[in-house]
């Protein structure tokens, strides 16, 4: 069985796939390396190899790989930056500075569409990436996502204090807010939706009338109803990871 990891700054997303059918057998999200080791140990899944993408420091990434080797006797392959791969050319002037999670999402989207595409990853930060029909990555944009927007307001405005449950309830409708939590949550969501709408409009200018729209990331569900043409793929990074780190 193959272990796949998407190691973000705060969480580690994991899944296990079969080596033959490439079918997902298990998966989840954990908050630390030790929690990952514990979850995998209790699952009793026999692992043979690991491939991962990490936006963490080299020391943190190598420490995780060492822990996996010690716990499960497996080697790990880590995705690396590339100027060009699988028909896609990295659009950054310094290609090594493009976040690996963005690069893999771009690889995955172009692999699935084989055409022009706009990739929107809605997480802690929101990123957009434009890819031409010829596989040219044209660059993109980065802005704060819902977690960053609400946390900044909570941090810098003393009277804004509410929990996650209240935030979730506030988004059940989008009329003007009649409490602080409603006003903040709905305002942040409108900013998020506005950014996505702008990216779609710009994509028509840069990619032409025909392009695929991909939504990924934890908050993709907040905007998907606004864009019925979009393909919502929570595991888009893993599609690119399989391209960047093929089976040995």
UniProtKB/TrEMBL annotation:
Any one GO BP annotation for this protein: coenzyme A biosynthetic process
The EC number(s) this enzyme carries: 2.7.1.33
The entry's keywords: ATP-binding, Coenzyme A biosynthesis, Cytoplasm, Kinase, Metal-binding, Nucleotide-binding, Potassium, Transferase
Signal peptide as annotated in the record: none
Example of a GO MF term: metal ion binding
Cofactor: NH4(+); K(+)
Pfam families tied to this protein: Pan_kinase
Name the record gives this protein: Type III pantothenate kinase
Species of origin: Pseudomonas tohonis
A GO cellular component annotation in the UniProt record: cytoplasm
Summary of the function given for this chain in its UniProt record: Catalyzes the phosphorylation of pantothenate (Pan), the first step in CoA biosynthesis.
Catalytic activity: (R)-pantothenate + ATP = (R)-4'-phosphopantothenate + ADP + H(+)
